[in-house]
Amino acid sequence: MDELRKTFHSDLDEAKGELVRLAASVTELIPRATAVLLDGDLEGADYLIRSDDEIDARAMAIEEHCYRILALQAPVAIDLRQVISLLRMVAEVERSADLLCNICKAARRIYGHELDPKLRGIIARMGEQALQLYNAAIASFVENDAAKAAAIDDMDSFLDGLQKQFVQAIFESHAAGRIDLQVAVQLAVVARFYERIGDHAVTIGERVYFIVTGRQPEHKGEHSYRGGADNTASVPRLAPFIADDEPDR
Amino acid sequence: MGLLQRRTDRVPDLIEVEVREARAELLRLRAEVSRLQGALDSLPIGVVLVEEGGLVRTRNEAAKGFSGAGHGDILVLEAVDQHVQHALQGRVSGSSVELFGPPLKVIDVRAIPLRGGGALVAIEDVSERVRVDAVRTDFVANISHELKTPVGALAVLAETMIDEEDLEVVHRLATKAMHEALRAASSIDDLLELSRIELGGAALSEPVDVDQLLHDVAERLSESAEQHQIRIQREPVAQRLTAMGDRRQLVSALANLVDNAVKYSDAGGEVHLSASADGDRIAFVVRDHGIGIPARDLDRIFERFYRVDRARSRGTGGTGLGLAIVRHVASNHEGDVRVQSVEGEGSTFTMRAMAATA
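YS: structure for the whole thing
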């Protein structure tokens, strides 16, 4: 029995290691995608977009590894929390890589358009902040550090602030005629990508917190829903999506 | 029977001797292992010894430095694992892990199979070597570009003028030729100045009044600042400060810093020039709210002919040598120069030079 558990734990450690390495690879892509955007580096954009296939394949392999563990080892307690969390986290990491690809695609769309230094400065800082958030998320997972994991949410508010600042700077730059509308829209979308990458890092931190403490992080919407703080009583309700007599799909 | 008794009596003594010798051998071996571990730990490169089954037998201090939870360390360890697998199958294996930074880091990972089984991995941070190589390669490319471009342009302009009869066109071409000639002359002047500073060191070592120095620098740049609609704000020096060194070199270095600040600030902006005591040095600070410098360029801007944005630098008329001059002047005055900058928010250059002793 002990031997069986030993194999199980080494299997679980292997899956964790794969996820940590995947997250490290995606973290390394953050400054690279930022440089692609700032330098208008088409070759770099192409390279990063193509490398996303490898990230997808690795994410899928980790997912399958987790399913195998669930099916063959039937983990319980902290082990079950770990496997479930690994499945959730791998999706966050994979999605972050997609967002970095989207930044590269935006770089292609605005190729040849000059960005003023203020916009460039905020993009650089959003990239740095996203990198820090991801590094903190990985470190909290590697070190099983619930306190570090809980701090990521607060760190993210700085990135959210930068996004707002950036949108303001886009308006100013567009109003001054330094960038056209198409570039302004692309940049606003880029800011949203960075902000989402930060959110994914926060979610990874929340999963780490759950693994270590067994407590689900408090989701504000879910909390207020359960607390019955429903201020939408006067809003007309939609019909149920699946009618009672609808056949199974 | 007596002989057997005598021999039996000696057994404990013999065992004691054996044990004592074994203990001494053990201590000697421990000391040897400790010496070897000490030697391994003193190596600047990371060394990891892996047993046949893949278990890490030992690793030195430098290798332990790569065991953090940061993404860079994780990627290095991933490369180590991968090459160990190859080496355990009897193949020499290696690669470089490039971490974008900034600053850029390049870590070489090499694994070799050992004769008696197992593998040895070497992890080496070659970032500095890569940086120096890039500086050397870029310097050759940049200097040939800076000097050949105006000369090439002069040749083409002269050739066009030979066959041109329209005086107006000839005038326009001659103006362009003059501009290119001035540009080449300016590059050569700066190169000569840099070489003088590099070779000559601090030719003079005299007390230099800091307040007067700042005044002279501000005066020298006042016309250029006016043209760019920039205000040079000279902050009053709190106490009487005296630097020790070559006045001409100090003026040249500070003028270069202020000139850059003026060129890369938006019209209507301000450039602050100040000085204060910093231990046995004087810290000269030039601060602007201009376009700033990208983080990845910060550690390269003091190289000769290095340009952050070639197109923009050309427009401002710089030669690409100004900051290299500043660095040499600071070094000649037993000081240094540092920069802090955020793109879009501005830059602060701090040059330190030796203060005169009271």
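YS: worth flagging: The interface with chain B takes residues 20-21, 23-25, 27-28, 31-32, 35, 38, 116-122, 124-125, 128, 134-135, 138-139, 142-143 of chain A (CB under 8 Å).
IM: good catch. Also The CA atoms of residues 163 and 191 of chain A lie 6 Å apart.
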